[in-house]
Amino acid sequence: MKKFWLVFKHEYMRHVLTKRFILAVLSVPFFIALSIGLGFLSVVLGTDYTPVGIVDRSGVLTDPLINPHDNRGPLESTKFNFYSDETQAQSALDNEEIQGFYVIGPDYLKDGLITLTAIKALGSEVTGDFATLLRANLIKTQPADLRVRLLDGPEITVHSLADSRSVDPSNILAIIMPILAGILFVVVINISGGYLLQAVVEEKENRIMEIILTSVSPDQLMAGKIMGNLSVGLTQLLIWLAAAGIGVVFFTNLETQLGGTEMLRSYLLVLVVTFIPAFIMIAALMAMVGATATEAREAQQIAGFFSIPIFMPLWFITAILERPDSALAVGFSLFPLTSPLTLPVRVAISTVPAWQIALSLGILVVCAVGAVWLASRAFRLGMLRYGKKLSLRELVRGTD
Amino acid sequence: MPTIVVDQISKKFGPQTAVDQASFSVEPGEIFGLLGPNGAGKTTIIRIILDIFKADSGNVSIMGGPMTEGKKNRLGYLPEERGLYQDVQLDRSLVYLSTLKGLSGPEAARKVDEYLQRFDLYEHRNKKIKELSKGMQQKAQLIVTLIHNPELVIIDEPFSALDPVNTQMVKDLLREEREKGKCIVMCTHQMHQVEELADRLVLINEGKVVLYGGLQEIQRSYSGQDVRVHSLGAISNTLPGIASIEPENSGSRIHLQAGTSPQKLLQTLVENGVQLEKFEIAIPTLDEIFIQVVTAEGRPQ
After folding, report:
1. CB count, 10 Å around CB of A325?
2. Which ipTM value was assigned to this complex?
């Protein structure tokens, strides 16, 4: 058991302490932050904050003036300056105090006529702000709650029949979160699997297998390698989650966005119980490939066969989101390589029958056990074959 | 109690017989040569001894019984396939492999430093293994084999990739380990290297034991009726007791007639006034013995 920890520590430290790992870990949050920052910056830079003039001949915008843009968020709303006639507005425009001015016609309520004078076309946010300002003031005599409904529109909540759980489809985060978390988990599975693949080929590639075998038992070696490399992946995940958490706290209020903790809890539970056998299965498959291949590059090529189906649900993600109970979605959540990404997403957005969850997890567990069996077999048969591949037939039929 | 007992082991890979009913034993405090040409089955026998392969039949006892995890800490093995973690720093790689042999972390670090200094590798300790020369890597592998002070040392082809200076160093090292009472098994096809070192040996050909015993007894039993002579003048082949004379290097090889002892010939030569620089019984080299054995010629009388 002591040697298991030695292998574990060695496998963990040698990856975590490398520049490559630190770069890989930090680059993802860095690039995400960078792209968000750049997007933000381009909006800020692209927006003209010069005020816009209004000449109101209709009397719609007279006292009391309602300003609907009180809680607009990080970006400022357009500032409007009022002028009593067009000459004043024109001279303000000539002095570049304003970027343009609207003239609301005297019979606006009848003909809806408004003219805009500007040097160049105004941004869409200005047009939107002006329309909202007009609308809010036109209905200012209505009762307060009616005004809110007219301005904000309906808030639709979808209830599924068998369950009390409900998802608000306008709440983007509730749909995006499970997909993102699923992708993140699969990425971690792949990263850890990749490390493991390399780790298993390593002894063979470096011709050190016999020294290792006469120092430590193959079981302890494999267990140490699997756990060590899983921990590398988890470290990466934790750092990313921490970075994401900081980002989410900055930008939104997570609890209200996720629409209730019950959904979150069942989703996380399914995610974790899917993740564990899925990780073991994929790790074992990677280890098996590593043990049969002769060098890391070759092993990585073969491992691509496993990686592609894992990501496949993403290609069909719209279909799965629109119809989470379709045959395609059910099929994907039963097939062991696609279920880690499909099942938690389905659980998050709809009601999945218990038998499907159980069957899906059952298949995953059986496949994980089978993969571990194949991997240890491949390891025993393939460990001393330097430069020679182990064929599938030998793997299934051969003895040592 | 012998350190290794190999009893009638056989191993087949598919239709090919790699080891065929091989038996021998190795005692503590001796350097034992496991010899044979390439492909004779030497490495397979070692792998069976170390429990990497299972024998189809026969038994192996190592340090008093079957191989266990605990015994792995008491043996050092340098396989023919030489390697270390190429991308890992030399000292870290050595410390890791030493701790896998049961040394504690601080003890491993201390001993690694000590051995690196002794093997002239200390200034390279921060380099990655792949940045070292082949000879340096071989020395690093020897450190891994010996650092945990094992009772049993098994080295497959100990002198490959070593220059004469390092070859001599390894020979001295192996003798030193023998003085400490270690049991050393050297597996090689370079038989002349073994002549200098080995106390006893087993010779394998096509998976079978063809020769087994003490080095000197084997050589004596294969030395025939020949002597090697360096003389100042020519030796007449008409002298009594001489069957024939062949020139050999700078001297001659004299085949004796049946019934003539080397002592008798020496006496004859001296009586006939031949000025001798060198006179020795022609002890066959292991290479010669091996060729004799496998071609089934000139079996000892």
Report:
1. 15
2. 0.78
